[in-house]
């Protein structure tokens, strides 16, 4: 349960606009950018660590070791 910052009215999680004064509730606004940011960071980490799609050529190191 949230409360409107403008009028203090209680707002349910499903409502995007305050039923009392009509002020938009910034719900989900904080969650989505963090998820997207986390995915972007993971992708960058994968690229930096060389685990990207291009790393498949080095997927069989055991074959080269055998003599
Ligand atoms: Zn309100």
What strand line-up does the widest sheet have? 1-2
Mean pLDDT figure: 78
Task: Give the uncertain stretches in residue-range form.
Answer: none
Strand element count:
2
Radius of gyration: 24 Å
Order of helices and strands: EEHH
What is the general shape? rod-shaped
Name the bound molecules.
zinc ion
Structurally, the number of domains stands at 1
What would you call the quaternary organization?
single chain
Give the percentage of residues in beta strands: 5-15%
N- and C-termini, Cα separation: 67 Å
Helix share bin: 25-40%
Count of individual helical segments:
2
The largest sheet, given as strand count, sense and whether it forms a barrel, is: 2 strands, antiparallel
- Helix and strand content put the structural class at mainly alpha
